[in-house]
């Protein structure tokens, strides 16, 4: 679990195929990697990856077919910079929002515009992500927790303040660029619960009904017609 508060950027040092499919990515950074054990998690541009090796300031992670298909990592090259965040620990401040690191799909940057010292970015989301967009709701773009400003169908906008521009790579995005998107975790679970309830047979739903107030206050023995001992 992450918060979408990027700690630093890392540099992809190597990116090559694995013997049985997938790819291995090697990244160097200033993160204190001693705090991330082998087999632990680390978010790379918003994608939760498993650390499979480390040496000095460099760590390795493996990318499976689904990660390569659903995220932008498959198009990365050696020398590219990526956002990094270590997992949240119990007691850590939740500065952004709950981020699982499970990217829902990639969006496309439509346009950018400056407003004073800030930068507004408009992104078009995939059809399956768009229903979870809400004004003033949360969205994760390349691992960065952001507030949705406006929503227009599948498109939405966010504002990058100077601090975000200085500690992330989002200010370098240009129209046409692909970005990793993760919708709000709570919104997705609520939507799934509503879908499940809507498809449940009405007879099943009828079995679970609230008790009438008289049932809750009348002694059980009297409801059965008996007498209390």
Please explain how this structure is put together.
By secondary structure, the protein is an alpha+beta fold. It is built from six helices and twelve strands. A six-stranded antiparallel β-barrel has the order 1-2-5-4-3-6. The chain has a six-stranded antiparallel beta barrel with strand order 7-8-11-10-9-12. The chain is globular and about 50 Å long. Residues 218-229 have low confidence and may be disordered.
Can you give the helix content as a percent range?
10-25%
What is the count of DSSP helices, taking H or I runs of 4+ residues? Answer: 6
- Characterize the largest beta sheet: strand count, sense, and whether it forms a barrel: 6 strands, antiparallel, barrel
**What gross morphology would you assign?**
globular
Give the tally of β-strands. 12
Radius of gyration, taken over Cα atoms and rounded to an integer in Å: 23 Å
Uncertain segments are 218-229
Please write the string of helix (H) and strand (E) elements.
EEEEEHEEEEEEHEHHHH
Overall mean pLDDT score? 88
Strand % is 35-45%
């Amino acid at each position: 679990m992450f918060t979408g508060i990027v700690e630093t950027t890392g540099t992809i040092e190597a990116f090559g195929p694995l013997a049985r499919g997938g790819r291995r990515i090697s990244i160097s950074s200033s993160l204190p990697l001693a705090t991330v054990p082998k087999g632990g998690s680390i978010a790379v541009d918003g994608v939760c990856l498993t650390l499979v090796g480390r040496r000095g300031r460099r760590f390795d992670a493996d990318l499976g077919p689904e990660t390569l298909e659903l995220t932008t990592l498959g198009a990365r090259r050696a020398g590219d910079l990526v956002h990094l965040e270590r997992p949240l620990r119990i007691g850590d401040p939740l500065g952004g929002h709950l981020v699982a690191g499970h990217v829902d799909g990639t969006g496309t940057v439509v346009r950018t515009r400056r407003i004073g010292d800030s930068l507004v970015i408009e992104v078009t989301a995939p059809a399956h992500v768009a229903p979870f967009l809400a004004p003033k709701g949360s969205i994760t773009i390349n691992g960065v927790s952001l507030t949705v400003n406006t929503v227009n169908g599948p498109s939405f906008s966010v504002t990058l303040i100077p601090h975000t521009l200085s500690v992330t790579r989002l200010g370098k995005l240009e129209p046409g660029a692909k970005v990793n998107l993760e919708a709000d975790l709570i919104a997705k679970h609520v939507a799934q619960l509503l879908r499940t309830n809507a498809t449940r047979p009405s007879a099943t739903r009828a079995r679970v009904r609230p008790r009438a107030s008289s049932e809750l206050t009348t002694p059980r023995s009297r409801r059965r017609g008996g007498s209390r001992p």
